[in-house]
Amino acid sequence: MKYILIVGVTSGIGKALAHQYAKEKHPLILTGRDRVEMERIASDIRIRYQVPVKVKTIDAESFDTHSDFFASCVEEAGNLSGMLLVYGHMVDQETAQNDFTKAKIMIDVNYTSYVSLLETAARYFEGERSGFIGVITSVAGDRGRKSNYIYGSSKGALSVYVQGLRNRLYASGVHVATIKPGFVDTRMTYGLSGLFLVAKPEDVAKRVHKSIRKKYDVIYVPGFWAMIMFILKSIPERVFKRLSL
Ligand SMILES: NC(=O)c1ccc[n+]([C@@H]2O[C@H](COP(=O)([O-])OP(=O)(O)OC[C@H]3O[C@@H](n4cnc5c(N)ncnc54)[C@H](OP(=O)(O)O)[C@@H]3O)[C@@H](O)[C@H]2O)c1
């Protein structure tokens, strides 16, 4: 079987996805910033599922390394059947409003770096004329709300970008999936107040794996978030602007 590349495997959702795909016997290239943690995840997966696992480091903010990083992943793997991008950064709205340096890091990680990596990957998969790309955005990108519109806009921009990429790569037989989780129990949400219907990363991974296999284009996780966001998006702007959301 060909390798699957996971970018951001030390994230709660990324780690669960690595286990899910390894369980299905896919060889993996696990990538991220934290080499020690990645080696730990890789050893665990090799022992549990008996699949080949390689580890590579990448810093999403080092844009000028992305092209070499992707080329070295392809070289080591031989070839790739797919790629999942699962890293992200969130600073709270108040901090982002008052400290542009911190807001910029969030925008660079959540949007700019994805464009950089995905344009490199798109050329590869276009040439292969097969494969899949799964990108984690967020329900937060579906509508701007005062409590998190800077994070939300970085995800909203990413969702629009991925939509265009799907349209471009369809002709080459490459499937591109937009994955929109609601709240998930990970480091990113730890200690935050006001969360509801919080999902487990393992359940998110199961749904993502199944939905990509079925070639779904936009995947809300859990599925009921599609209905919640439909209702939220249906509220007219003249009403919505008065709400405290
Ligand atoms: N949790 C939620 O409720 C939720 C909801 C909707 C969408 N999402 C999205 O789902 C994805 C995964 O979220 P999560 O909650 O599982 O994440 P998480 O556990 O909080 O982990 C964040 C990940 O992003 C990585 N990262 C941050 N900056 C990076 C950089 N400059 N270069 C490389 N890696 C970087 C971190 O690496 P280190 O380990 O090295 O710090 C870590 O692997 C993110 O895109 C997030 O926005 C999450």
Low-confidence stretches: none
Bound molecules: NADP nicotinamide-adenine-dinucleotide phosphate
> What is the CATH C-level name?
Alpha Beta
Mean pLDDT, all residues: 97
Structure summary, number of beta strands: 7
Question: Can you summarize the main beta sheet?
Answer: 7 strands, parallel
The number of helices is: 9
Helix content: 40-55%
What's the number of domains?
Answer: 1
Instruction: Report the radius of gyration as a whole number of Å.
Output: 18 Å
Q: What structural class do the secondary elements suggest? A: alpha/beta
Shape designation:
globular
State the CATH topology.
Rossmann fold
Encode the helix/strand succession as letters.
EHEHEHEHHEHEHEHH
Strand percentage, roughly?
15-25%
Give the CATH superfamily. Answer: NAD(P)-binding Rossmann-like Domain
Distance between the termini: 46 Å
